[in-house]
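Collaborator request, handled under Task 6.
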Amino acid sequence: MAKFMVVLLSLTSLGMLASCDIPNVFEFCTALMSDKQNSCSKATCQGRPGKRGPVGPKGNKGVKGDTGATGTSVALEARVKQLEDTIAMMKKVFTPNQKLEFCAMGMKSRDIADADISTSSDWESFHHGQYGRLDEQPASNPTSYGSWISRKPRIGDWIQIDLGMPKAVSGVVTQGRPTSYDQWVTSYKIKCGNFTNSFQTIMENNQEKVFQGNNDRNTKVTNIFPNPVVCRYVRLYPQRWHVHLSMRMEILRGECYDLLNELNTKNGHAILKQRGEECGQSTPGHTVDGCKTCESNMGKFVVVLLSLTSVGMLASCDIPNVFEFCTALMSDKQNSCNTATCQGRPGKRGPVGSQGNKGAKGDTGATGTSEALEARVKQLEDTIIMMKKVFTPNKKLEFCAMGMKSRDIADADISTSSDWESFHHGQYGRLDEQPASNPKSYGAWISRKPQIGDWIQIDLRMPNAVSGVVTQGRPASYDQWVTAYKIKCGNSTNCFQTIMENDQEKVFQGNNDRNTKVTNIFPNPLVCRYVRLYPQRWYGHLSMRMEILRGECYDFY
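Structure tokens returned to the collaborator:
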């Protein structure tokens, strides 16, 4: 039952189950087998159902239902594209170390406890699997040689990590033995499972995938699975090694799949979806590949599992039948019972069914849904949330800036309503600009006669998505800055729209000193060529520096 609850809760955490009311095993299995008609008692329902009686004569065809409402896939597809673009840009500013910090599941950090690491054999206690952690080093207290080293290297040796509950996993990182000896694993296979007596090997092109390992002691080699998998136990099986079977490793989160590897659009989820529909529509007892004995609600059961597969959350296409699934949940890793003892005595063969009545008019079709797209959006949003955690403010700005500070936006593309003099022109209103003598500059845009209606404008040359701005005051000598402003955007210089919020023109809060960067994100991203900032209030004099933020940064902030 503990396993049963873990599986259901893991589904709930992925948004696949809405209810927090956890049924017992009898209720759960009965719902699957009886098409939610939970009227039978435990005595009559808990055993294996008897053989279905012969099918009665076919009823008359019902009236065709009304056409369902149009689905919402277009908006979801646009959202997926937006999130994928954001992740693609965020990936560009991740260093390898940042990727590893973000993606590691706990070998190096020791979030995975020593007791959760086991092996097929160890050279001695100083070479146990608990020392096979990425970047592990030799130590004297407790004594350790800094890696897992097998007793007598052979094909079939393994190191296993117990994640405590089923989790999404996308790959592994390996190293060799750190010092003194040139020992490392040059290739390996990976097996995953939710029980220690049931594993599946990572496959590619219908063959067991052999991952390439290390060629020296300390270089980190990362391998990403063809698709993420969900499992509790991860086993690495070395296939070849240099001198001796010695290694260190880390496991990578499933959320990192898009960060570390380009999305594999040919993951077969369309085929899997079709297979689930075949199962749901097939006659009782019909077998479709791994989908066995499709009873009345088995189609829905399979579709739930396949919906996880379609977003890369399950690796296996072998869908269990109700008995296999419920037995795994009930047995709490004690899978010793057989069909006869666990499934109950089969019931008697049912009588011949009577002729079906004429079908009633079909209900109006349901509004079209895009379950796979919704799941994909959730997956991408979760990835962005996790990626944001390892970005510093400076890294955010490096990623999001559109070109004022970097000068990707040219001087000629910056204009103003007025300037104090040529040394205070808009071209000097760039974020982090400083006073200079050649060419002479006072390090900020400074207006001629400060008044409501003054503006600084940036021409992006073509319509671009924009999500916000960053501002500073005048950098030196004078306490001057803008304390509030409005933003207008447009695709021509004679047609602008003001950023709105709650049906009113949005007034953004600005600066309170010379150099602190203040970031303001728009209520929604905008697409425009020209961005104008209109100061509303200022301190000392209307002086400022600024940067524009990319539209892809909206979710990031």
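The cover message to the collaborator said: "Confidence is low (pLDDT under 50) at residues 1-26, 32-47, 262-346. The first helix runs from residue 2 to 13. Please let us know whether this matches your experimental observations."
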